[in-house]
Task: inverse folding
């Protein structure tokens, strides 16, 4: 029996096992910045929200609407709030001649909110929505920023940034693994929305 060979194989398997564990934890993680929750706001007052079109800072033209749909789905799945149909939100914005979400005034937000019967608006941006190429593999990467604004006061009552996707150690070494764009987006949005209900 060749003990030197067995010992070398045993070390190789231990290293491989460690890499797999590291890859698992790095692949499952979602990166985030600190969450802001208004310390004095009574969130029980919010029964209905409207998700406005998200600002798209990525290179993918449809990223804003794709992420917006998932935000709406995740809010509905939480079963705590009513969420206004995005088409209805778009009509309200068009009726009031609002072209740019990024420059909304407090008065415009209040008008939109009152028209829709919402107590809060969800705004934000898609910061990254891309596939990165590493080691011969292609990996989804998504980053977003969301915030909720109280209709009555115009105050930001919740804000968070989340990212998901990328690749772990094994993916970087061998060029495989990682989430699809949809999976990465859903993970980032789910992680963000959960903090709204804590």
Result:
């Amino acid at each position: 029996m060749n003990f030197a060979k067995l010992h070398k194989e045993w070390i190789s398997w231990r290293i491989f096992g460690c890499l797999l564990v590291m890859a698992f934890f790095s692949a499952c993680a979602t990166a985030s910045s600190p969450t802001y929750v208004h310390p004095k706001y009574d969130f029980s007052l919010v029964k209905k929200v409207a998700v406005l079109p998200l600002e798209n800072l990525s290179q993918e033209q449809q990223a804003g609407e794709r992420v917006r749909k998932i935000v709406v789905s995740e809010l509905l799945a939480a079963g705590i709030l009513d969420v206004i149909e995005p088409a209805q939100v778009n009509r309200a914005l068009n009726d009031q001649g609002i072209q740019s979400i990024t420059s909304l005034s407090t008065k415009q937000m209040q008008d939109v909110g009152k028209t829709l019967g919402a107590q809060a608006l969800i705004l934000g941006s898609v910061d990254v929505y891309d596939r990165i190429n590493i080691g011969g593999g292609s990996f989804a990467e998504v980053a977003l920023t969301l915030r909720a604004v109280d209709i009555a006061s115009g105050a930001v009552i919740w804000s968070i940034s989340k990212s998901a996707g990328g690749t772990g150690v094994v993916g970087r070494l061998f060029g495989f693994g990682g989430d699809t764009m949809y999976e990465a987006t859903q993970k980032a949005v789910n992680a963000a929305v959960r903090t709204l209900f804590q």
